[in-house]
């Protein structure tokens, strides 16, 4: 068997159909990202003119020609029609090429890092690189026959089906968790944060701890990006397992309360500008408090309570006013346990997605080897 060489223009064609009748609206608007995923359009869509959007019917591809490093691309493998901004190109496999290339195989081919590098190389522009449609069509691709393509597509689809099944179970678990949180929100007595947390100020006086960390807007500890050359780390604050670190700076700008729970056995140190807390009594579980401060609703409350300065800070006195519903300890632990399982499974689901993405170049390489020796050019 041998591989057959084609130009993309022999296989694909633009299919730009405007949403002129406005049959599709905000709930149908999507975008594509560099991970080759179709996802709901971000940001406010209130002022969007949906009649100018392009339709993305089933079995159609969409890509953003403007970008850099990686190509934003997605494939609609559902039975639903979406719409995408007119800045994006929508294309499909030509009728005449249906017996040459499978749509999923083409998507696997275009999802590889090798293709991203090639697309970047042949793009043009300065501040914004453009991957022009005509340049795309002029590129060449080598393909094995349909039976070999189908063999490797079946492997890919089996992995996707497994990940999607896992994700459905994850969504069910999330619904259970949300129902519990909603019940607690409306039934448990609320207590202000000042009655739940107490400030701790323990300094790194002996300089034994040298691992400096900060907090990001994802409410996680992270290595500090600040230049600490010549800085006296003995003035830094110690954080032990089960303690919180809090920064009220730029809460309004980020629309996020910057707080994190430290879970490592070995203590770390943070800037003296941070505040360190621990729970006042054992009946309040730290992980439960962190779950509550991880909610978007609590972040919005913090944003609302921020001051009007340039930094839009959430002062400590205002932070102490935030109320948290506190159920009995058994219910707190149940919520923590469900959330812990959910988090672990969510991370596993992300790993499955990453494996699917990483397997694409392996499957394409295997199909080309099955189909015959390439002509010495990179696929």
Give an overview of the whole structure:
The chain is of the alpha+beta class. 37% of the residues lie in helices and 20% in strands. It has 10 helices and 22 strands. The strands form 9 sheets. It has a 4-stranded antiparallel β-sheet. Strands 14-21-18-19 form a 4-stranded antiparallel β-sheet, with helices on one face. A two-stranded antiparallel sheet has the order 1-12. The longest helix is centred in the last third of the chain and has 43 residues. The two termini are 17 Å apart.
Quick gist of this model?
With 379 residues, this protein is of the alpha+beta class. The chain contains ten helices and 22 strands.
Largest sheet: 4 strands, antiparallel
Sequence of strands across the biggest β-sheet: 2-10-6-8
Q: What kind of assembly state do the chains in view correspond to? A: single chain
Low-confidence stretches: 374-379
Give the SSE layout.
Layout: E1 4-7, H1 8-11, E2 12-14, E3 30-32, E4 38-40, E5 54-56, E6 61-64, E7 66-67, E8 72-75, E9 82-84, E10 89-93, H2 103-110, H3 113-122, E11 129-130, H4 133-138, E12 140-143, H5 146-187, E13 190-192, E14 197-200, E15 213-215, E16 221-223, E17 237-239, E18 244-247, H6 251-254, E19 258-261, E20 268-270, E21 275-279, H7 286-293, H8 296-305, H9 316-319, E22 323-325, H10 329-371
Antiparallel strand pairs: 1-12, 2-10, 3-4, 5-9, 6-8, 6-10, 7-11, 13-22, 14-21, 15-16, 17-20, 18-19, 18-21
Helix pairs in contact: 5-10
